[in-house]
Amino acid sequence: MFLAQRRDEVAEATLQGYHYRLEPFAQWCDQVGITNLNELTARSLHEYRLWRKQDGDL
Length: 58
Description:
The chain is an all-alpha fold. The protein has a domain at 22-58. Helices cover 67% and strands 0% of the residues. It has three helices and no strands. The chain has helices at residues 2-6, 12-32, 42-54. The longest helix is centred in the middle third of the chain and has 21 residues, at 12-32. The chain starts with a helix and ends with a helix. The mean pLDDT is 92.
């Protein structure tokens, strides 16, 4: 949704950069069952950061 909204406002390279950065977060949300960003808490964001660190991405 975010990328679709930004498509007409930014360059293609910018969209690709956004996608590259958002894809792991979207995968994690799917994995843990978060379907609405209103469900995010400080704790869940902390868990996401730990998940990324385990993969060596942070």
